[in-house]
Amino acid sequence: MGHTHRSGRINRSTFAIFIAAIAALTLTLAGCGSNTAKSSGDPNTLTVAISSAVSTLSVNQEAGSANYQLAALYQEGLTGVDGTGKVIPALATSWKSSDNKSWVFTLRKNVKLHDGSTLTADDIVYAINVARDSKKSPGLSVYWPDYVQSAEKTGDNQITITLSSPHSDFPIQVSNVAGLFVTSKKFFDSAGSNYGSSKKLIVGTGPYKVTEFDPSSHVTLTKFKDYWGKNNGPQTVRIDFVTEDSTRQLAFTSGKVDVSFNVPVTSVAQWKTNGGSTTAYSDRSYYGLTFDPNVAPFNDIHVRKAVSYAVDKKSIVSGILKGYGEVATGIDSPEQLAGWTGNDASKASKQTAKLPAISYDLKKAKSELKQSSKPNGFTATLTYPTGYAQVGKASLAIAQNLKSLGITLNVKEIPLEQWLSEIGNGKQGVGWMIYNPTTPQPNEITSWLLAAGGSGTNPANWNNAEVAAETEKVGTLDQESDKLALVLKSTTTALDEDIYSPIYWGKSVVATAKGVKLAKIGTYWLGTNWAADFSKNA
């Protein structure tokens, strides 16, 4: 999972937190959370298995994808998003700004918290300041933009947030998919270090109330009867933490769970037994190679292009991913960029299709290598993190093609922590970039990858003053078409220089048991009240 972040980009110091969010969604760690409850035949109870355990219910403390998925059911921000990524009212009914610097939010009246108290403007201001505090919110504060100057109550049902520079898309920053999870000041202070723990649980304003939490196995939620909005979901939702793929599959096929997230795309067919079905959707994830132009021999553009031409993207998508992915022609996926095309991914796709991403061509690969400083080949290492089997298989496929050029690519699986420490460390010339964005911010990924300020500013340590300035400028533009044009221009430069070699945009798969219906699903679905989209036959 990725995120929006300070100054619209992320740096190496916050990357460990950022990438852990990806891992929380997709990484499988054996031996944890295998204690699942028997699924109830009660149509009012839904049992869901996910691939990661959470140590806390507080996203402020732990900002992993699983934490966001859970919090979407019990905590809210000033704004929210719908399944298409459109920003919608939540705790604020409306917002306005005359200069895109001073934002006034009108608050929803008489909102009840799960402890029965009434939400106040002071609570929301406090929640914003807590989210920005690195000591109180170590998992969340790094994602808050540093252009936020202050948040203050300016009326009984009004707060004003002041920015240091104009940002027309600021309302998304105060959503529950970006970085604001409101509770009461009283509860936060009284819970102290136990906020979000099994001892104190958590209090929010969302459609579901947390009633039970065991970090080693599950969390249970029940419908909040005083919720301000509508909730047509089941009365009870139990979410089991089953991090090993095979254990989760067994729990699903044996009827212990009604729904399973994180179905491995390499083994979807195995989940369709006993009347089960699967649904795939674009999760906007980006998988590609990153070249550090400061590390030999990848400081030679002909070497970089030789490797890129040797990547058979179509075969990786069709063979290794079994079609559960799309060949990437750029960095930000069309579904991600759709926020700047009226939520029309097809329009964005037409734009990304024009980008100069390199396509598979072994003849061109050989030609580029002959023009390089290493015409007879060389040896390099490509690592990938444990838990990403499909990335490992793709790495081996790339290595096989490079072998025909005289290039030896040693593929090595390493622990996540080690892989994290090597990203952008200036020592490896080629590496994987895996990014799963969570927000509708169209340039969430490229706001970091194209922050071309040199060492430490982007995973390639790429230095291009013009691109760096363009990336910094995007957030200050008013017109969405201008933002899209500028990001595509910067992306074109990165692809022309072959700093990044996009391979595929990923998909996620959800399995539902016989008798369980999934009404709708979309790319931003897990940031909504997703439990309400499931129903069980009586």
Automatic annotation (TrEMBL):
Chain coiled-coil ranges: none
Signal sequence, renumbered to the chain: none
Domain Solute-binding protein family, first and last residues per copy: 86-455
Entry superkingdom: Bacteria
UniProt name for this protein: ABC transporter substrate-binding protein
Species per Swiss-Prot/TrEMBL record: Bifidobacterium thermacidophilum
